[in-house]
Hints:
654 residues; 7-stranded antiparallel β-sheet; 24 strands; Beta-AFase-like_GH127_cat; 6-hairpin_glycosidase_sf; Glycoside hydrolase family 127 protein; Beta-AFase-like_GH127_C
Amino acid sequence: MFENKIKITAPFWQQYINLIREEMLPFQWSVLNDEADIKIEKERDADHIPAEKSHAIENFKIAAGISKGKHYGMVFQDSDVYKWLEAVAYALHQHQDNALQKIADEVIDLLAKAQQSDGYLNTYFTIEAPERRYKRLYQSHELYCAGHFIEAAVGYYSVTKNQKILDIACKLADHIDDIFGSEDGKIHGYDGHEEIELALLRLFELTKNDKYKNLANFFLYERGKNPNFFKEQQKTDPSTKPVIEGMESFKPEYYQNHKSILEQETAEGHAVRVMYMCTGMAMLARLNNDEKMFEACKRLWKNIVTKRMYITGGIGSTVIGEAFTADYDLPNDTMYCETCASIGLIFFANNMLKLDVDSQYADIMEKALYNTVIDGMALDGKHFFYVNPLEVVPQLSHKDPGKSHVKTVRPAWFGCACCPPNLARLLSSLDEYMYTVKDDVIYSNLYVSNKSDFKINNQVISIEEITDYPWDGKITFKVNSEATFKLGLRIPSWANRYLFKLNGKEFTPKIEKGYAIIDRTWEKGDIVIFDIQIEANFVCANPLVREDYGKVAIQRGPIIYCAEGVDNGDNLHLITIDTNKKINEYKDSDSLGDIVKLELEAEKLILDKQWNNILYRNIMEKQENVEIIKLKLIPYFCAFNRGENEMAIWLKTK
């Protein structure tokens, strides 16, 4: 981790990095300590979701014997603290902050006290039900929480060299290895929510201890061998009380244990679980040179991005199980598109790039990042979406129980608060996703202004990238070292017109798997310009996506645009677009930031007196009157920052 030194200088992303360190992390810390004066909302209407407070830090104090009381919150509440801690690590990597590090170090001291003598670390079962440890794995999230702590430990140790957090993590991983495995007397099973697998592999990469890689290998390959494992394993639980209500009816597909992972051809079940499983699979395939595992990754990837992914990079089509459904089933107003799921998709894509540098993976990484992921956070850094809708009518969210998960404004926090700290840890570590270095090639995946040093063949190569991307497509690379290496520049799948220049002269590079490869002995001061013509375009969906047939979306560069009621009035479904009309673009600075907005002429149906007190009528009697409007569009990630109103991405065409 952090093998190369990458300093992000892009104003677009610096504002997020600074917002996380200065606003988001302190705010989340106050929430975790129950000190924030906020309303915590349920992510959907369900009586069993605890939403009075977080209590996450207090749970650790009780488990450590510092305080007395009962556990409060979801069974996986510990993971909120772990993801916050990992985000702190990356924030410290970007900018040293002694006060923030002191708080984090004190949290680590608390975790050490809460850890049991055998290495076990989980507040719910330590406080409420130690006799139920590992007895109800499909609900307990014990290994899921352990995985998030191990990831936090790897990140924090890599930045600060804090030995205590690494010791806690290794003690916990050693404990898990004592309990799980193929040997007699161990549990031949796995957690209901994947996460431990990729965490163990990250721990292996840091410590080089094969035990952790072998345990991850066991968890992945054991999954799905016995689809009835969870039901059979539950019989060992001395209690019949559910750990999480509402999960008893979920089928094996929900947990991805309906088949061996090498036999799974479609993404099934809970979307975040699928993404974490696939990330672990891609990591193991790379570390073990496992070709069969790699082929399984490619099958699942192809199914997701060609048949089960939204135009925003969102995944998960239904609130029931927060899950995938069927090919081309992509409803816009009842979808789930959980923020964590798109974050997981980025994890998967990044690890596929490490396996096979192919621009298709970086394309999806970019799509998810600029749309669903940053849509998950308000521009103030203190309000969040769990669900990222593609169409919203406020009164339906308020009155239709089937749309209670479709929020009309971003809440400050959730009873199930997995998304906010997950956002923080991803965006704080954005530099880890910008480049892939393989052999003697530096591949640029995400175009973000930065100053970086790379190590290749005992050479330190300094490169500066300058761009106003995603608003402008001119990307300049200045090489500040004399060295021999290859520079690979991703050609985005949406790019139709572009050119390359080397030291002022236009040239045509070799293209390999969507990357322009520039192979030369570089001189200090060499300048490469990759100039992409970024312009707004109409995009249509596969005709098998029923909800989008006869509609278009508007995309400019990597950014999907949407219409909001605050700009265009209510009843956005009455708007019709003529795709022959010109889309006008203009840069604007207002409460939404310094962004490019779009405008085009469209028609909107006038609801006149002919429809008063009439629900249906003979089509021969219908007279349609329309008005010409200037349809205004903003980037999707900016939506819902100006109060409650309608929003739509897909609009009807003539």
